[in-house]
Amino acid sequence: MTTSSEPSASSAPSPLSARPDHALPRVLGAAVTGAVLATGARGYLSWSGHRGDRACRPDGGLCITWWNLTAVPLVLAVTLVVLTVVYRRLGIGPRLVIIPPTVLLAPVPLAVGAASGSSAVALTGAAWSGCLALAAWRRYRVPALTASAVILLAAMVVRYHS
Question: What number is the average pLDDT over the span 16-45?
Fold first, then answer.
């Protein structure tokens, strides 16, 4: 039995340990993931909308297509799976606290970004998921949640300002 204070090779911490000083690379990884997911969601929703418009008659009647019906649930499911896998690989936890607000509240800032183009969607997705991922560390929780709230509030003001 060793009483040394140095960890053995088998109990060495992984490179993705949960120390706060390693938060920046993880948050950047979450931000990149958010940017890719936001851009992909915008592209898929746009594509499914165009495909649904082509399938429907131009008389303006109610028309529901498979693409329109499944677009949002498919985007949400893919986003949940990707965020769960990526956050696990990055060592960001607790995922149960971070992923639902990332997914459920993201449409508000992303809708504002979508009106400005794909680069705005990518930047909004990166800022949103990066801020919420930063909230995983107690040390950064208040600034991260404050930044997320500011992004959400600013998006609502831009979106609903007359």
Answer: 81
